[in-house]
Amino acid sequence: MLVHVMINNYIPAKMLVDTGATAIKINVKLLNQLNQDIPEDRRRGYVSTAGGMKVAEEVFIDKIDVGGAVKENVRAFFMHESYDDTHFDGLLGMSFLSDFQMTVDYKNNQIHLKR
């Protein structure tokens, strides 16, 4: 399910809800919009994706708002070798979702997040 997300109060994005992703994953385009200084010593590692193991780099997003459900200082990863990102800007994973109780309304194509 795709959801509309507001990042840092000024960047609108579309993210695919992925409860199997341990953290948020963003594409490089969205990373560039964050316009933050990325430290050279940031954590790098491998993440397991549907396409196999990929190199990813860690970043932290100041604020993510999904329909009023807000979390600050959220761990995320980006990959230079990006997934098919033509329809969405990233994966909304458990580094955000784990703070909320999530219910899915399939009939109306909505998710509801509650602390």
Write the layout of secondary structure elements.
Blueprint: E1 2-7, E2 11-17, E3 24-26, H1 28-34, E4 44-49, E5 52-66, E6 69-78, E7 90-92, H2 94-97, E8 101-105, E9 110-114
Parallel strand pairs: 2-7, 3-6
Antiparallel strand pairs: 1-2, 1-5, 3-7, 4-5, 5-6, 8-9
Protein model, in words:
The structure is a single chain. The chain is mainly β. It has a single domain (2-114), classed as Cathepsin D, subunit A, domain 1, CATH 2.40.70. It is built from two helices and nine strands, in the order βββαββββαββ. The protein has helices at residues 28-34, 94-97; strands at 2-7, 11-17, 24-26, 44-49, 52-66, 69-78, 90-92, 101-105, 110-114. The strands form two sheets. Strands 1-2-7-3-6-5 form a six-stranded mixed beta barrel. The longest helix is centred in the N-terminal third of the chain and has 7 residues, at 28-34. It is globular and about 45 Å long.
Question: Which tags fit this structure?
Answer:
globular, mainly beta, two-stranded antiparallel sheet, six-stranded mixed barrel, Cathepsin D, subunit A, domain 1, 115 residues
